[in-house]
Design brief:
Layout: E1 7-12, E2 17-22, E3 29-36, E4 43-49, E5 52-58, H1 63-76, E6 88-93, E7 104-105, H2 108-116, H3 125-138, E8 144-148, H4 158-161, H5 167-172, H6 182-196, E9 204-210, E10 214-220, E11 223-227, H7 249-256, H8 262-271, H9 274-279, H10 284-292, H11 296-320, E12 325-329, H12 330-335, H13 337-343, H14 356-360, E13 367-368, E14 377-380, H15 385-397
Parallel strand pairs: 1-6, 6-8, 9-12, 12-14
Antiparallel strand pairs: 1-2, 2-3, 3-4, 4-5, 7-8, 9-10, 10-11, 13-14
This protein binds adenosine monophosphate.
């Protein structure tokens, strides 16, 4: 049975569909799944419902076929999703541009606007829209809400959001810092405040979302004042396969000297760079193992990764003036104790002291890893974007 009031959360990529059904009140995950290689000769489906696992290899020509199969898998377990009392579908939408600053009920106008701003995120928004259309074709009676990755950052101070580019060109092409991973930064910064028993409005935090994609934000009183990702999710920290910050002159150089096309450079910067480009690996577990074995390329990748991370931690300490908490989240932030220790090493003079034993604890729960006498609380807070999207969707439909 699906609990009345549950939310279907959908994250549609260009050839993939991730979904969860969860109860936003108890946080119980009722179903969870991933369809990959949609549109290819053979798609793969992983579906989990209340402890029951299903795996399928089947041809799914498009997202609607994928959703139809998922609904059939629910039916095989005796659940008619269309008639199960879902309160909403929450769709992750990557780019809200200057149009969407909050979770938004999806109407025809909203769809058109998401489409209109698609050039800002050509790989993501069209895929998100495909997911929205496919789900609403099959679940027309369930209200659908778009939750934007950029929304949390939509009020960034002008000086943080503005690139020093010809102002006319920037205006014409909507070039500015938008920031991404906002759902995670907002969720984690609120959880961190709750954990500390403080009102989020009263504290300043540095949030480090370190996953395969990675971003940092400086959050003052619950509102971000800066973030590392920019007009696209390419900027900022060293990531699994993305360069993060890079001299834009390198684009001209690679074009002129290496004869690379814009598409080649796009692929190089987004898919073949970062940790993978530096050492051939973007799984942090194996990078840490290789570092321990004395592998030079992995050790260099690790140093470059940490150097960038520490640079932003320092910058955000200055921007915030006073920092109450530094919060680690996402795959690397939640699990890689050496990254947490090394990124904050030697900062005792700034009131930052990690407790080695606390840092070594593995747990799915929010936890403190700084010493009791550390002026800055250092926390690990697992992110949960699905739960945040589900809650946001319910917030919109019950408003
Ligand atoms: P995400 O994008 O949040 O799913 O994070 C993916 C990243 O987290 C990958 O680089 C993983 O290698 C890394 N990761 C996951 N588990 C661990 C772990 N136990 N130790 C180190 N890194 C991990």
């Amino acid at each position: 049975m699906i609990v009345e009031g549950s939310v279907l959360v959908v994250n549609a990529g260009s050839s993939s569909l991730k979904y969860q059904v969860l109860d936003p009140v108890t946080e119980e995950v009722i179903a969870d799944g991933l369809v990959e290689r949609i549109g290819e000769p053979m798609s793969s489906v992983k579906h989990w419902y209340r402890g029951h696992d299903v795996r399928r290899e089947v041809a799914l020509p498009d997202h609607e076929a994928a959703i139809a199969l998922v609904l059939d898998l629910f039916k095989a377990d005796g659940v008619d999703i269309a008639d199960s009392g879902l309160s909403a579908v929450g769709h992750r939408v990557v780019h809200g541009g200057r149009s969407f600053f909050a979770p938004t009920l999806i109407t025809d106008e909203v769809r058109s606007e998401i489409e209109r701003i698609s050039p800002l995120a050509p790989l993501h928004n069209p895929a998100n829209l495909t997911g929205i259309n496919a789900v609403s074709a099959l679940l027309p009676d369930v209200p659908a809400v778009a939750v934007f990755d950029t929304a949390f950052f939509s009020d960034l101070p002008d000086e943080a959001a503005t690139y020093a580019l010809d102002a006319e060109v920037a205006r014409e092409y909507a070039v500015r810092r938008y920031g991404f991973h906002g759902t995670s930064h907002e969720y984690v910064s609120r959880c961190a405040a709750d954990f500390l028993g403080r009102d989020v409005a009263d504290i300043n935090q540095i949030v480090l979302h370190l996953g395969n994609g990675a971003s940092a934000s400086a959050v003052r009183g619950g509102a971000p004042i800066d973030t590392t990702m920019g007009m696209t999710p390419l900027e900022g920290l060293v990531m699994g396969t993305r360069t993060g910050d890079i001299d834009a002159g390198i684009v001209f150089q690679l074009s002129r000297v290496a004869g690379m096309s814009i598409e080649d450079i796009d692929t190089l910067f987004n898919k073949k760079s970062g940790l993978k480009g530096l050492c051939g690996d973007n799984d942090f577990r194996s990078i840490l193992e290789r570092v321990a074995e004395g592998d030079d390329a992995a050790e260099r990748a690790y140093r470059v990764y940490l150097h960038r991370l520490r640079r932003y931690i320092g910058a955000y300490m200055i921007e915030l003036g006073k920092v109450d908490a530094i919060v680690f989240t996402a795959g690397v932030g939640e699990n890689a104790a050496p990254v947490r220790a090394d990124s904050l090493a030697g900062l005792e003079n700034y009131g930052i002291r990690i407790d080695a034993d606390r840092n070594a604890v593995r747990s799915p729960d929010p936890r403190l890893i700084s010493t009791d006498d550390s002026a800055v609380a250092v926390l690990v807070v697992p992110t949960n974007e699905e739960l945040a999207i589900a809650r946001a969707a319910v917030g919109v439909v019950s408003a």
